[in-house]
Amino acid sequence: MKAPKLVTLSVAVTAAALLASAQAAGKLEIFSWWSGDEGPALEALIKLYGQKYPGVNVDNATVTGGAGTNAKAVLKTRMLGGDPPDSFQAHAGQELTGTWVVADRMEDLSSLYKSEGWASKFPKAVIDLITYKGGIYSVPVNVHRSNVMWYVPANLKKWGVTAPTNWTQFLTTCQKLKAQGLAAPLVVGENWTQQHLWESVALGTLGAQGWRDLWAGKIKFTDPRAVAVWTMFGKVMDCANKDASSLSWQQATDRLLAGQAAFNVMGDWAAGYMTTTKKLKPGTGFAWSASPSTSGSFMMLADSFGLPKGAKDRAEALNWLKVLGSKEGQDTFNPLKGSIAARTDSDVSKYNVYSQSAAKDWHSKQIVGSMFHGAVAPESFTSNFGTIVDAFVSSHDAKAAANAAQQLATKARIGM
Amino acid sequence: MKTSDRTWSFVVLLPSVILLAIFVYGFIIQSGWFSLTDWGQDPVQALSAHPVLHFQGLANYRDLFTGFLDARFRQDLVSTIFFTVFFIAGCLILGLGMALLLDRNPRGEAVWRTIFLFPMSLSFIVTGTIWRWMLQPSGGLNVLPQAVGLPKGNFEWLSSGAAVLKFDWNRLPLLTAALVGLIMVYVAVRAQRDGARTRTLVAGICAVLLLGWALLIGPRLKLLPGVELHGFNLALVGIILAAVWQMSGYTMALYLAGLRGVPDELREAARVDGASEWGMYRSVIFPLLTPITLSATIILGHISLKIFDLVFAMAGPDNSATDVPALLMYVTSFRGNEFAKGAAIGMVLLILVAAVIIPYLVSQFRRAEA
Description:
Oligomer: heterodimer
GO cellular component, one term (chain A): ATP-binding cassette (ABC) transporter complex, substrate-binding subunit-containing
Largest sheet of chain A: 5 strands, mixed
Family (chain A): Belongs to the bacterial solute-binding protein 1 family.
Radius of gyration of chain B: 25 Å
Order of helices and strands of chain B: HHHHHHHEHHEHHHHHH
Strand content of chain B: under 5%
Radius of gyration of chain A: 24 Å
CATH class of the domain at 72-124 and 234-369 in chain B: Mainly Alpha
InterPro entries (chain A): SBP (IPR006059)
Shape of chain B: globular
CATH superfamily of the largest domain in chain A: Periplasmic binding protein-like II
Keywords (chain A): Signal, Transport
CATH architecture of the largest domain in chain A: 3-Layer(aba) Sandwich
Number of helices of chain B: 15
Largest interface: A-B, 41 and 39 residues
Protein name (chain A): ABC transporter substrate-binding protein
Distance between the termini of chain B: 28 Å
């Protein structure tokens, strides 16, 4: 008689305990495209979150694919289908505001910024990027620099050249290298890396203010200054390899390291690739400078997380955002990811030589947003801009490219 | 008994009929409707929870075929036609060749058959990845000649910017009308030979109208303000190679089945009548294989028109030299957020596929009835 009663009792207690723990343990789904090299950095963040908010079951919904090409499509179908993740990754700037905020799909996070005191911790230029009609809409986790030119110091010495500091000088250097039998002094990869190069050429040709004016609609793409960007871009591309479209950015970097090319313009994730994957020492194995004519500027892109309206686990998602924006969170994530913290008070000693130099520039240079990486141009623009670049590379018609870009800008409502 | 059988079969079939009606035809109609709206032009509406759509007729289609910014679509359309022609031709010729070889009963025939059929068991994504490695500009096929002491090849398999057989897009109406007109002339001539008077008359009138239009009105029609050249991009050669590698085993299997179906008596009869080996193939066996060629063409044709994964894996979504409409549809909808235009591209693809499939279905129905 007694034994079964005990069993029933213990079963009931266990069940109750299980039920209670199930209720206490929340759920959190994080949607990102961080996999591969970036996976461990995200895992570290999730671990930190787990320490602060134990018992929450974190669902890491990563969709693989470089620069989020696949993830963004999956996200769109989920959002359109009314099944938003609790928090998702988006490049800070137009990619977030121009797509999701204008469509009234995101929650305003201004109160979170107030309660966490973040307004003074992030640079104003970054906050401006994620602000729309007075509301702040996402938490930037990291910052990457887009306008960096990479080279191998030993190779440059061998060829007897130095890293050019402006685009005109670059062309002279290019001729010098070609004379020595280097067919393609500059290595570029598939279409998006060419757009990436284009934005460096444009920033160098227009200057930081001109670049901002371009995206504010104050300078038209058909303006002679903007047409000059294409002319210069054409000359720069004449220094590049012809088989570009079949190379990934990593393969392009490999060519640089193999001495088949002297320069490569790529974001600073290339530093992560060269130090982590290729085991090279920053400064000796590879070196860098700001891409020509842009030494006064830091062209930035940032990954950020926002809170979609209708998120199922809103409280947990808000806690996740708090971790992301905290100093500890940013210094856990960024050394692993190979980027720098968006916060200005981060602990620089945790970062490698390259990142330290980038962090220094981040605090001292003029900050401008990247076009291809979603900071200053809406998705409908960047999505089609590649076609214009491709057409230009084969035709070298600066006027036609400028006209097409202006039509595209009008269609994408840039500067309106 | 019979009525209960009927009821039973109806009940069993009903769920799939309903599912098909909703998830295939319902969504086709929905996509058709979206393609007539402005969904995606206004970023405020593009991804909002309840987008407000405005009907704007055929504007998206007009943009695709004549809009300044949509040159990529037009190149894709041309690319896809060239791709289809070369892909089908490659598969048919290679498949027939392999089938003829196997038909001679070589030693280890089963092994050969498996080897030839094997690529078909892979998905296009896998094929694409393998072939991307092999077509690397500085590796794979290009260094192959070095193995036998020849100089290294430097064909830019997937990245060549060159194109051949270029024509001005403005000439498209003229070219199409001329081509269809010539086909009509052929039909009319055939019909006359068969003695079908009405058919001769109808085809003849069509031919005259089309050719007349092509000669008189076509040259003056201008779709675009400027000249816009489109042609066969040489970078597609790499994709065609991979696609043929994947699908030629399939045509081989079809042809082999056809060849095995030819009764030995027929071959012997031909030989007795003094036909040479080649003559026997030409006048006896190949005509018997015509239905197989037709079905293979249909199957390969619709695969090639909607091809996406192979190109995505081999050249990525932004390599304009190898771009195809299905890829552009994906990029337009899910990256550019232009859902209406994406739907319009989808409808154009549907029409292309239907143009291949429907005549085939009709002929099948006719045969089934007869």
